[in-house]
Amino acid sequence: MTTTTSTTTTATTSRHASVRTAPAVAPGTGPTSPSTTTPGPEQLAAVVAAVRRGRTTGRARAVVVGLLLLLGCVVTFAASLVVGEFALPLREVALALVGRGGDDAAFVVGTLRLPRAVTAVLVGAAFGLGGIVFQSLARNPLASPDVIGVSAGSTVAAVGVLVAGTAFGVQVDQALLTPAAFVGGLLATTAIYLLAWRRGLSAYRLVLVGIAVAAMLNAVTSYLLTRAEITDAQRAFVWLTGSVNGRGWDDVRVMALALVVLVPLLLVLASPLRTLQLGDDTARGVGVRVEPSRAALVVVALGCVSVATAVAGPVAFVAFVAGPVARRLVGTPLTVVPAALTGALLVLLSDLVARTALAPTELPVGIVTGLVGAPYLLWLLTRANRLGRTG
To answer: Among 23, 91, 182, 300, which is least packed by CB within 10 angstroms?
Structure first.
């Protein structure tokens, strides 16, 4: 027994000694885990080169996608000027644009179709920009302005101004609708932000609170319509569907002035937005002022959505679809310019379909965008449910 105990003690001591005296494994030469391996200079250089190649490839792909989207916008824009109940050859359209066409062509192109097409482009771009900012801030594709109640706030304010204007005998025009829509959207966004804030902004809580606020605001809009005169109600119903029919150069000027101010601001804020997508703590770690940057981005995106809503109404699903589609085409998380081009192409193409599908009857563009966006929303919810079930 003594011999066995002594042998065991000796073996244990030998194992401990072997552990204590085991030679250190050189970095990168032993069976150690990757997390404990210190990369050498050659490995770091390879990683840096791979990142640079990825950035170059991503930029090249973004440029190609942007050019293709721009080409699609140009082709659809030309088709919008040519196709219609009063068809015009492309040559006559070109002559009318330079002031050398006939009176009929000049009226159809210069008064009816050209301002409508330009308005569609600007409205679609504004909705696309607003959507990509809200979705990127919340890091959730469901956090679109027309889903979380931002557009509903602009809508209830604009309809309220329409109804109040008739009650007080005031002629309501675009000069009143635009600031009213902006203030309504700002109040709705502030309420959603404060209600969703709990020591930080949770994307899940933001979407739920936004859906609840949107439901309440839609109820208020319905109540206002029941109190409106029949002419105001008819005007408001068409506006609520979303339409660019009858839009003129005054609407183009409003949208153009708004985007001239808002787009440069958004491009400047694109860098903080890209960092905020990594999380608040990471953004603070690299020196980004989180709350001021987020507030500035919200105000700029709200301006885009509110002005577009005031001009064309809450065109459904454009802000919701434009950003994710552009992101999938480009393959990068943040795609500001492609999202604007996607929104412009979507509204322009939808308006062309709405104007010609049941000619001579013209549908509001919001009906066509709704037919496109609703299946996408169902697919997105189905995909999210499948990912949640499978983990």
So the answer is: 23
Angle (CA) 243-67-249 rounded to 5° is 35
Rounded CA-CA distance 109/95 in Å is 10
Residues facing residue 197 across a β-bridge: 201
Distance between CA 45 and CA 11 in Å, rounded?
A: 47
Question: Taking Cα atoms as reference points, which of 172, 224, 184, 139 lies closest to residue 314?
Answer: 184
Rounded Cα distance, 119 and 347, in Å:
10
Half-sphere exposure of residue 38: CA atoms within 13 angstroms, side-chain side = 5
Q: Identify the pLDDT of residue 260.
A: 93
Q: How far is CA 386 from CA 5, 240, 323, 390, 391, in A?
A: 60, 34, 22, 6, 8
Q: Tell me the three state secondary structure of residue 358.
A: coil
| Confidence (pTM) | 0.78
Residue that the structure tokens 């210069």 belong to: 110
- Cα–Cα–Cα angle for 371, 374, 378, rounded to 5 degrees: 145
Looking at every residue in the chain, the average pLDDT score rounds to 78
Which residues lie closer than 8 Å to 171 by C-beta, 6 or more apart?
A: 165
In degrees and rounded to multiples of 5, residue 31 shows phi and psi of -80, 40
347 within 8 A of 118, measured Cβ to Cβ: no
List all residues 6 or more positions away from 255 whose beta carbon is below 8 Å from its beta carbon: 119, 122, 123, 126, 307, 308, 311
> What is the pLDDT, as a whole number, of residue 19?
40
pLDDT tens, residue by residue, 306-325: 888 888 888 888 988 888 88
pLDDT, tens digit, for every residue of 328-385?
Answer: 888 777 788 899 999 999 999 999 998 888 777 788 888 888 888 777 777 766 766 6
Cα-to-chain-centroid distance, residue 195: 22
Quick one: how far is CA 147 from the chain centroid?
11
